[in-house]
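Known limitations

Files may contain more than one protein. Parsers should not assume a single record per file. Below, a two-record file is shown to illustrate correct handling: read the sequence, read the token line, then continue until end of file.
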Amino acid sequence: MSKPGDKPKQPEFHLLPKIINGSIAGIVGVSVVFPIDLVKTRLQNQTIGPKGEKQYSSMLDCFKKTYHAEGYFGMYRGSGVNILLITPEKAIKLAANDLFRFYLTRPDGTLPIVNQMLAGGLAGACQIVITTPMELLKIQMQDAGRVAAQAKAEGRKIERLTATALTKRLLAERGILGLYRGVTATAARDVSFSVIYFPLFAILNDMGVKDGQAPPFWWSFLSGCAAGSTAALSVNPMDVVKTRMQTLSKGSGEKQYNSIMDCVTTTLKREGITAFFKGGACRMMVIAPLFGIAQTIYYIGIAEYLLGYK
């Protein structure tokens, strides 16, 4: 019980449990939705042939062909490197957002929407040091089956590399910068996503607060799903550009792009505006549960209990 003259207890920010919660959230989330993410990558990378032919006619067709050609574990191709790097990536993203929100909160306890967007954008900028190489390696692993299937149909053979072999090759050929191919497109996607996602999630999650009590876990889950799917669809054009720029092994007739502008103009000219929303439904199906699960685990605060903060 406080005594007269005592100063009110200042809110505290504990970074370590935030990082641990973000790590757990990332591993659980990506393990659940990875097969959908693989389909998203393959749909975004396929281009329409001169006669309008497509390797995959739909999301379901891609699922069927991938499963038939590569089996159950083929749906998790590239998941190892993703799970390994999603731990620091999600830890940085979620913890950094909370850190910036903490310091951008006004003395009266309010956090204007502009400050929320700034906190989200800064968190998105912090994560690209991990996201860029993670996405680069993941995309090669995910898209290898599509390129191999196309080559097989044409009577050619494509050498498949492991994530470790690919990393060694990129480091030998281009140094550390080889792992940061497409970093500008990645930054544009992740910063804009976070600017939309985090304020929207906070607004939706706060609607579940009753009598000063934190919302139930299912409310945080639904808030994460709604905010995640909205932000995912909004930045899907940049995700398509990023995916195409980071794909190193192209199929027949597919172009290597020199810059973001080259990718945008070429895609627009050859495939039209709808090409920028390829894999949009898949991406929403990936991001919605991924962030729903992540935010639920994050807000449950497993690490706080384990470390004795609660």
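...continuing to the second record:
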Amino acid sequence: MRLEHGHRASLALTLNFVAFAFALSAVTTNYWCEGTRKVAKPFCTGPPVKVKQWFCIRFNSSNINDTRLVQYIFETGEEKFLLRKFHTGIFFSCEQAVDMNGFDCRDFSEIAPEHERGVLWLCIVAESLYLTLLFTGGALMTLEQCPCFSIMNKLKLSAFAALCTALSGLCGMVAHMMFTTIFQLAVAMGPEDWRPKTWDYSWSYVLAWGSFGTCMGSAVTALNRYTKTIIEFKYKRRNIEKSLMIKQKMMELDFPEQVWDMYLTAVPTDAEAPLELPVNGHKPSTGTTYVVEMDNVPEQQGEAYC
């Protein structure tokens, strides 16, 4: 599908904005991974209630300090354990509270293995570079749409925008892979009070990789537009140089100016068609193939084609 220059620029800019929105949403949320933790139910506190509290264990008697009473619980086996939900991001890891209402969050750097915390900080730096370069590329693409710049300046802006967007995609890919590695190490070597029973990647993780995909799509579109424009410029320059060489050849052979003017009017509009010359000063009909024989021209010194 062939797109015009303006459409390509708009497509690259749209993909850039989508990638930036996805990346910003992924980094600022804590749903990269989610799962459950198996923990023992705590003992219930406070006065007894009529409704059974399923998230804690209550003794048969509320008078716990009375040593003459036999204290026992009704929960057995798996009933003594509770599955708490948790979700984790780059900055924080949140787990359901003891009463199962709300979430308690703590810094993910406290959960990551101590010898891998440097990699976590590199991941944060890479994500910051990803957002910064992606925003810079979008800003350059927006400036490129401004009509106050010349064509060459727009080409330079397009090249820098494609470069910034491609570099941001590489930084994002490295950052996402580093977080994946750190989280898996935390699952295997993290603190006992955090290790999950089950876990999987969540919607923030999908947004992060979706942002990477749209970012690279924006970079490829911008680079393709820049490359196509450069090729068109080179092709037009080659045609101009070819026309000038033909004119110089005519001047060397003492052709009158009328022949050059008729040649210009006879040049087809299709850029792919071969360049043609009039024969004997007359423009042939459209579609007629003709050749100018220049070998005999020097022999006719006093004559010229009219």
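Parsers that stop after the first record will miss the second one. For reference, the second record is described as follows. The beta strands are 33-40, 81-88, 92-96, 103-107, 198-201.
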